[in-house]
Design a protein that fits this description.
Number of strands: 7
Shape: elongated
Helix content: 55-70%
Structural class: alpha/beta
Strand content: 5-15%
Order of helices and strands: HHHHHHHHHHEHHEEHEHEHEEHHH
Oligomer: single chain
Length: about 475
């Protein structure tokens, strides 16, 4: 169902874009056709200019024909020759050049009619197909939303209201920031690595990159938290049952750290996504990821979509979300609330639904975990890692511990820290029969999304240019 919906939506978007482009082009042709209806009156004005020997009026008619005819127009060519003769003072020659313009105008009008009809004949099938596919996508989307209606209804109670315009406006601002980021990064790479470029060009690219990158970072730092989806919006956009991400609020600063990217991006120029964002990108292999936000925070942390529970009865909301979620990912911490969530998940949920993330260098948390489990996990909690181990459970609550880190025989380039966390989650779940592919590469899905958004600006810009041309020339 999800694959079908995405396929239909993507095809509908492409077909609708082509349809709109063809329709705008046909509308421009129709405008030009209708505007040319004034050609006989303009020709009459030209003849009147010859009678009155007014070169200014003749020039005005020539200017009109240049603006409203094609380069191949015979009528426009005759008027132009006649105007040149008027400039030379030979009005009789001008009459001879233009005595058959009426017939040529009729030919040009037939050409406009034919071109307009052909343009609409091309556009109409695309418009019909786009309308049908868009309707199908909307129907599938409505059916998909019904699957999560109960979760959306619950979470929507805990999402603070915000102006309807805020997210669209800051999405546009973020798009501008992403454009600066991608352009600045590639300009910087070209300036530092394209040795065959002239020094002047390399200096220009380097200066452009050094200006564009700081602008991009400041724009994105301000706009991205304001353009995020709320938990209710994230759930409406995905029919699957959610993944509930639980952690202590004290973990948020460390989860917000932006790690350096590997390989050609090791300079960190394109590193704008936090650890939590990368982790959530991997967990979206299962479904939309939601988390309880810190009470009183002005802007949500980037990563899981936030909702905000009341301070006096937050346990009820967490329990209901545990029941409705398909997966519970819980990062251990010091807060008593975290350990209450561990106990409640163990007491009320199936074992295969719970995934524990163990912070590195915290053997005290590993020991405390064993006290909350029927069978000890015996986690080592290796220091120096944001997450050192992943723990899942078999049907009898037997823990399975998966260390985080490069696996034996892994010949890939070094990856980001969260890449290995995602791989460990995938491997741990596979041991208990839950299979999801490519969770590691999904941690970098945000970078692909940035490139996709920037590339989408190109057809969007083309469409806007055609639309503005139609509006201002109508």
């Amino acid at each position: 169902m999800r694959t079908l919906n995405r396929t239909v939506t993507a095809v509908a978007a492409v077909v609708t874009y082509v349809a709109l482009l063809l329709a705008i082009t046909a509308a421009i042709d129709l405008r030009e056709r209708n505007a040319f209806h004034d050609a006989p009156a303009q020709y009459a004005a030209f003849l009147a200019a010859l009678d009155s020997r007014s070169s200014a009026d003749a020039h005005a008619v020539d200017t009109w024909f240049r603006a409203h005819t094609q380069a191949s127009s015979r009528a426009g060519a005759s008027i132009s020759l006649g105007t040149d003769a008027v400039e030379d003072g030979d009005f009789d020659l001008a009459r001879r050049f233009t005595d058959d313009v009426a017939e040529k105008i009729e030919e040009d009008q037939q050409g406009f009619d034919r071109r307009s009809a052909e343009a609409w004949a091309r556009a109409l099938p695309w418009l019909v197909a786009g309308a049908i596919l868009t309707a199908a996508a909307l129907v599938l989307r409505h059916r998909r939303r019904k699957r999560n209606a109960d979760v959306v209804e619950l979470v929507d109670q805990f999402v603070p209201p915000r102006p309807w315009w805020r997210r669209p406006v800051f999405l546009v601002v973020s798009g501008i920031g992403h454009t600066f980021l991608v352009s600045g990064f590639f300009a910087f790479v070209a300036a530092t690595r394209a040795n065959e470029l002239p020094w002047a060009a390399r200096g220009f690219l380097l200066a452009g990159g050094l200006v564009a990158l700081p602008v991009a970072y400041y724009v994105l730092k301000y706009s991205r938290p304001r353009s995020t989806r709320s938990a209710a919006q994230a759930l409406r956009a995905d029919w699957r049952r959610p993944v509930l991400y639980l952690r202590g609020f004290g973990d948020d600063p460390e989860a917000a750290v932006v790690d350096e990217l590997p390989g050609m991006l090791s300079t960190g120029l394109a590193s704008i996504h936090s650890r939590e964002e990368h982790l959530i990108g991997a967990l979206r292999a299962f479904g939309p990821v939601v988390a309880v936000g810190r009470p009183g925070e002005q802007l949500p942390h980037l990563g899981a979509a936030r909702f905000y529970l009341p301070g006096d009865d937050w346990q009820t909301g967490v329990l209901r979300l545990m029941e409705m979620s398909q997966l519970i990912v819980l990062r251990l911490g010091d807060g008593d609330g975290v350990w209450w969530e561990v106990d409640q998940a163990r007491a009320t949920q199936p074992p295969g639904k719970l995934v524990l993330l163990i912070p590195g260098g915290r053997p005290d948390l590993a020991e405390r975990l064993d006290a909350h489990l029927p069978k000890p996990a015996k986690v080592t909690a290796v220091p120096g890692r944001w997450t050192s181990d992943v723990v899942v459970f078999k049907e009898d609550w037997t823990p399975r511990v998966q260390p985080v880190g490069p696996f034996p025989g892994d010949k890939k380039l070094p990856a980001s820290a969260v890449f290995y966390v995602a791989q460990a989650v995938q491997a741990a779940l596979r041991e208990i029969g839950v299979r999801r592919r490519a969770m590691g590469p999904r941690t970098n899905s945000h970078l692909l999304a940035i490139l996709g958004k920037v590339l989408l600006l190109i057809p969007a810009f083309v469409l806007v240019v055609f639309f503005l041309r139609l509006v201002f020339l109508w």
